[in-house]
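Example record used in the benchmark description.
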Amino acid sequence: MNKLLKFIKLLLLVGVLITSLVACGARGSEQSSGNKTNEKRTIKIGYLPITHAVPLYIEKEQAKYQNFDLELIKFGSWMELVDALNTGRIDGASMLVTLAMKAKEQGIDLKAVALGHRDGNVLITANNITSVQDLKGKNFAIPHKFSTHNILLYQMLKQNGLKYEEINPVELPPAEMPAALSEGRIDGYVVAEPFGAVSVAISKGKVLVQDNQVWKNSIDCALVLRGDFINNENAIAQEFVDYYIEAGYTAEHKDQSTQEMSLKYMKVEKDVMDLSFKWINYDNLKIQEEDYKELTNNLIEMGLQENPPTFADFVNNSLIDKAK
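Model output (structure tokens):
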């Protein structure tokens, strides 16, 4: 009998030990799972080194993120950036809004959540060009046919009695344009800053027309995010946009600290940056429906898109409306 009681007690003790070990293992598993959950999400945003992406640079330099880390990924061309965005290798980008609209039209789920800037596109020409009419038969560079810059060129010519077909539009990478103008390969160009300021700063070109003289409230670059990122990680997307809008307010001051932060991402001289900042604004980065409608009308008029995405389908102002 005593032996039987001792055996039963032994079984009970073994059972308690096994239960304890299983519980510890479960807690260890929960802790391990918790550590994975607590890892910060890294948001990957693409950009080209231009002043139109300055709010991103400022955000990266000054923000102290609570729930995510921001990785800015530099691209050498818009096509490389678009490919990375379309295939999901990046979560968003500061990019030509028209290229994002084209990707949206082709079935890529993208949303424009804020502007990159306002104004800041100048139409630069060689010093011997004295009027728009002088451009007849000349080579004029644009970064891409699906760009606001191309629309600005079209509108400038139209408003001055010239047809688009009466000049020779040339697609060039932005960084090549100042050298092409200096060497006489082109007679003018319109592109994102600071490449216009480069030619003016070295006296190889001049400003023929400012963009707001041709088309007020033109939409050029925008902050675009993938739809799945906004939908699946809305709280993080909101926090990211909160910081972005705050950075836009900082960028608008264009003080020395703003310039120093921006120069880390753009390899230009200080005088070029000073000139570029005179032409560009970063206030009120919300995309307005009437401005977007004018953009789509221009695209249709030029035959660049038959059915551009509607404002409701492409623009998501919910994040900027909730920005702190």
